[in-house]
TrEMBL record:
InterPro entries in the cross-refs: Amidase_dom (IPR023631), AS_sf (IPR036928)
Protein name: Amidase
Domain annotation Amidase: ranges: 4-426
Domain of life: Bacteria
Amino acid sequence: MIELNPDALSIADAMDKERTSGKVRGPLHGIPILIKDNISTGDKMHTTAGALAIADNLYKEDAFIIKKLREAGAVILGKTNLSEWANFRSTHSTSAWSSRGGQTKCPYILDRNPSGSSAGSGSAASANLCAIAIGTETDGSIVSPSSVNGLVGIKPTVGLWSRTGIIPISKTQDTAGPMTRTVKDAAILLGALASQDSADSYTAASNGKIAADYTKFLDVNGLQGKRIGVEKSALKINPAMDVLFQKAVDTLQSKGATIVMVELFKELKPIDGNEFQVLLYEFKDGLNKYLSTANSKVKTLADVIAFNKQNEAAAMPFFKQETLELANEKGDLNSKEYLDAVKTTTEIPRNAIDKILKDNNLDAIVAPTNGFACCIDLVNGDYDNGFSFSGPAAMAGYPHITIPMGFAYNLPVGLSFISSAYKEADIIRLGYAFEQATQHRTSPEFRVDLLG
């Protein structure tokens, strides 16, 4: 937690009174929820992306999805910690740490990193501090912390949920999404907040593609007769992961799915470092626009950089801000470097995913979501945990769901299903069938280390 909502109890009382009087707004009526601290609220809570630089930001109005939450009767308990600036500050950062909120821990083993950037949402939902939580993702920031915290996470198609009022990194890749303990809860939350928003042009493409209720796709027999592509490179990650993934593939097959080996990552090699270049440009553009309307003394990315330098001991005690500085050096979104890079990072993964799905008549592609949770290391920063499947769907802007796949060393890890644009119904159906067949999730025990 980074901040509690001082109005939570009064909101809960009001929702109870409505229910007692016979008014029920829907499945979110009175449900306690936590939201990531880069999602603006027009109330008494600050919106800071975990940064001391804008710790004074009491935003003027709710983000679009927060308005939808309030209309649905949800009780916002507070804001969750995150990797500062959604982990877009330094190449040597430690996930789940922010200068405002400190270090978040994995509830399964407390010396492990809960991953990010939606670390607090992942830890809180997993540890039962709320019924459901919301995270945001640019590349991996919903599905990765969901995976290592034993949760179901959905990164929707970019445009299914509005981004208005969310502190941005990338207009082409950013989206918020559900982080919950069950597929059913994720489906309920997904449908409640999916809507077109005139202030976010990307949502226009969702017209006619939004399901009012995604729970109607919860089918225990949802794998029967389906064709699932298995990412071949994910079959050999490490011995513990390999056993879990092979068992997952066997389960898919036993429940009626046909398995087809595919090699998606081979098709993505021309992207190289283009994604990072896109994010640098879009972060500068988007953050400057957000800060210009924020209720903070800091009004630009350059101001953030200057604040951090002036307050280095508090703002940058473990790692610096070279990513912020690189972004600030970029030009505008008319730059040739940006236009070339964004074309590469969107078209190649979209074409690759669509081609594999079409050529093999597939309903989805699966792989482990990521490796097991890393150790918290504020000295050296994050290290490679062996695998990540977030990139293809993130760059394409396509939907991605992760479902608990099992445990090794008392650490959970997820199984990912991805598909083409606005195919949330398809991957929810598949994910639910896998969840119900396996029931892998167990509550965390807050172990001190691997040995207990």
